[in-house]
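Thread: "does anyone have the structure for this chain?"

Original post by V.I.:
We have the sequence but no experimental structure in hand. Need at least a predicted one for the grant figures.
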Amino acid sequence: MFTAAVASFPPCFLISSISLTCNIPKLEMNGSDVIHFFHEPKNINCGKGPNWVFVNAQKKVQLIHERQGATCQAQSLSFDTDSENRLGTWENLKFGEELPSEMTNIKCTLGRASWEAPLMSVRKVKKETKSSERQQWSVLVIRKLPKTVKFLEEELGTIVLNGYNIVGDGTPQAFIPILTGATEEELPLTRKRFNNASFVDDVYPFIWKNFSDAGYVTLFAEDQAFLGMMNHRLKGFRKPPTDHYTRPYFNYLEDKMWSHNVQCIGADVQHQHWLRYAREFVEAYHPSTPRFGLLHHCAYSHDDINLIGLMDDDFTAWLRSMSEDGLLTIRFCRTEQQPFIDETTDTADHGHRFAQLRATHQGQMYQNLLMNKNRLSTPFDIHQTLHDIIQFPEDLTSEQDVSARSISLLRPIPASRNCDRAGIAPHWCTCLDWKDTMTTDDDRKLSNEIAEAIVQSFNEQLKDELKICSPLKLKGIEYAKKLTPKDDLIKYAGVKDNDGFVPDLSGSTQMTHAHYQIKLSTTPGRGVYEVTVLFDFVSRHLTLDLASVSHVSRYGDDPHCIIDRNYFLATYCVCYDKI
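Reply from O.Q.:
Generated one for you, tokens below.
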């Protein structure tokens, strides 16, 4: 036996429709199989504070009131190699001015007391502005922040890519296709354990090079040097890859604190400095100078899925202030299931009405995004979309080649796209297949129980009208089927090699829930219904959304007695005088 409830499914509980080749599930965040992994995290304890020195909103170095009179010195931190910093000489720190270098170590003394910590603040670089007849979009990509999706969707109108499908295991496998349009295996050897490995910037066609050539100021930031996406297994960069590059700063922090997971900068939690730096990058340049920034924050989330929640309030406030100050205007966002990618465009024109916008080139791209958000997409598609941001395509209405692995999100994605065509290996494919559930005794038994529960739910709707409407009974099942993942996806148990290339398919993951579609008939009367339900195998709970019930047979005059009283119940009611 199991419990049944009438309720609305979570929005887009099944993302795709029968018109799409790929049926994509939208998983419940607090599902019975995962809810026990989540808990409220403890606050990060950064010790006694506050920090003596800070950078204010105008990017000026200030000394806190309690430490007035302190003597402070500054030492620049800059790139020498990806593993070694170049340290400058100590100089007196001047308050009321910008930091002497983008990344600066500071030490102060006041009497017998002392304080030391590094700070970072964006210093403008000279960039030749490319002439363009069109408005250029700036791109800011911020990853691994899971709880701000509600704010993004409901207040900022962000488009979430519900059909986004990963193509590999681990951070490099997530980002290399986005940044290069290829997989690590397809690119020249860069794994540092091999003597003939190349530096990644010598052989990888990074998309930020394209942005730089187009006149963009570029930023690449990570808050864990030891686990850097291009450094942990790979050889890293020969030269700073972008105009702004934060690795020297976090190299210094990790070396000084003897930790590969720096969560505090002095007495401050790390993310406060991170968000200030991100805002500075957007504000530092004239609006006519486009910017491309990739900020990969993982110090809180890499080893603990709960700790990132401590950043939620501050990140939401950051987004709100950026939006209110006109620094965010159009946002594209990846699915919240791995929390999100926010490609934030900073445009100069803020006065469009939606109808006017829709008629423009950008408006058509927005409409395409709305259409594509529930279609199968991948990191390869993000890469192609970034190319389209650099050079807007002329044709925005023709459907793209379904056989192409990289497809832009700004142009129509074919409804017939599947994992094979999108370059997704079977063990990563989240597209679901319909499976007949009337072929085995166990499947038939469960399908019949579900059908009985559905009819009982119909009767629950009729309970106040049983004086004029007859209770219904299950007459038969015409078909029953459920959506199931690919066999290789269920078998995936990890990887067999150090690089994440060879999948281990020895697993036996059990399905915790499934969507059933059942076509059933009832008696008395001639009712035939098509119903989709969500069944939780762990809790044995069935959820039925009455809005999804389709009465596919003709009512005839069977519900005449209820139509004027409650038209909604005409779907289920068979009047006694029609029996």
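V.I.: this helps a lot. The two ends are 31 Å apart (CA to CA).
O.Q.: and Confidence is low (pLDDT under 50) at residues 8-18, 331-358.
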